[in-house]
Write a structure and sequence with these properties.
3 domains; Rossmann fold; elongated; ATP-dependent polynucleotide 5'-hydroxyl-kinase activity; ATP binding; alpha/beta; Elongation Factor Tu (Ef-tu), domain 3; seven-stranded mixed β-sheet; 29% helix; binds adenosine-5'-triphosphate
Length: 364
């Protein structure tokens, strides 16, 4: 089973419906530069994209792939959006060499719409400058907020062609509505759903992710991150001025917390407190209280001066009084030296791939 799961679930196959060949012809004839693939969960998006990419490579195209399927990434690392350039034919997205990443910090885009759109846009632009055609893989999140997300991605990247895979059951209507709503922004093409697609339940999807996390963090080591050298983003912690002893005492007295560290921003406070007392009644727009435990094994990203993600880390131990973080990362000294920023994610995960939980966006 492990052998099967170490590769991505989508692999190259020629056993695809006829309309995929028609699609390749359209891309070739129209010289489409940006093509986005949309469909519901397990509808065959990645399998279709892999087929189309290989056909185009066979025709001599230099193909870039933007993998924005954050829940089931083919191009590592997980929880980012990645740009890869195919060096030649490939059977599996994980063979495509990554050239740039954008940090999302979690495996579901629902609370990170803005980051997802910005990331896809930036990597598509980069891909356009490096390849003849950019193929964009997306998540199967297409209803509710997912509907808006897909629309926004299309508005931002202006694909020459957007490929939809026919939905099944109630998803059929979602796909039709989405297609209608963007038909003034992009050319659209509706593909049949392959009879070969197979569904993966949440436990199987988690298991596939577990293997990928483990692969990414293999051979990692703990490094000391000095916060006086790196900017912190993705959280209201570590910014503003430190609390005065009086403020700390007052907050502790009012709320009955043990405050480990805290900062005063323009108008709001952020504190790290020991233990979760379960109290949620305080006004979070005034004070953001972070449980120390929720920082353990939190995913972080190392960001370079261009705002792109160099790689990931797992926060192992915040040494608050020293202004330092101990972070497990596979990045080399040379790569870490390019980081200007450390960004906080919203998933807790171990280096063996065990997902300990997602955090709400406003929790940090
Ligand atoms: N033409 C095909 N022949 C054989 N298997 C297929 C075919 N199309 C899809 N599958 C299988 O169906 C499953 C789902 O396909 P795929 O991973 O491409 O879907 P997806 O829409 O990209 O999924 P996700 O929602 O995770 O992004 C995979 O196991 C894949 O191998």
């Amino acid at each position: 089973m492990e052998g099967e799961i170490t590769s991505n679930k989508a692999v190259y196959t020629r056993n695809v419906p006829e309309d995929r060949l028609q699609l390749v012809e359209i891309i070739d004839k129209s010289r489409a530069k940006v093509v986005m693939f949309i469909g519901d969960v397990d509808s065959g998006k990645t399998t279709t994209l892999t087929f189309v990419a290989n056909e185009l490579i066979g025709k001599g195209y230099r193909v870039a792939i933007v993998d924005s399927d954050v829940g089931q990434k083919g191009i590592l690392p997980p929880a980012t959006i990645s740009l890869g350039i195919a060096g030649g034919r490939f059977s599996n997205l994980n063979e495509v060499a990554p050239v740039a990443h954008y940090f999302i910090g979690t495996t579901t885009p629902s609370q990170h719409t803005a980051e997802t759109v910005v990331g896809v846009k930036r990597l598509v632009e980069l891909g356009k400058s490096m390849a003849d055609v950019v193929l964009i893989d997306t998540t199967g999140f297409i209803s509710g907020r997912g509907f808006d997300l897909k629309r926004l991605k299309i508005e931002a990247t202006e694909p020459d062609l957007t490929v939809f895979i026919k939905g099944k059951g109630e998803r059929e209507g979602d796909i039709r509505r989405l297609m209608d709503s963007v038909s003034n922004l992009t050319n659209t093409f509706l593909l049949q759903r392959s009879g070969e697609v197979r569904r993966y339940d949440p436990a199987e999807r988690r298991e596939i992710r577990r293997v990928k996390w483990r692969k990414y963090f293999e051979g990692s080591r703990t490094v000391e991150v000095d916060l006086s050298h790196l900017r912190v983003s993705g959280t209201s912690m570590f910014s503003g001025r430190p609390l005065t002893p009086e403020e700390r005492e007052l907050i502790e007295r009012i709320h009955g917390w043990v405050v480990l560290d805290g900062w005063k921003g323009k108008e709001e406070y952020a504190v790290i407190k020991a233990g979760d007392d379960g109290k949620r009644y305080y006004n979070r727009s005034v004070i953001k209280a972070v449980d120390f435990e929720s920082l353990s094994n939190l995913l972080v990203g190392f960001i370079d001066g261009r705002g792109l993600c160099l790689g990931l880390g797992i926060l192992k131990w915040p040494r608050l009084s020293e202004g330092k973080l101990e972070v497990l990362t596979p990045l080399s000294e040379g790569e870490l030296a390019k980081a200007t920023e450390i960004r906080f994610g919203r998933i807790r995960v171990t280096e063996t791939g065990e997902e300990l939980g997602l955090l709400m966006r406003d929790e940090l």
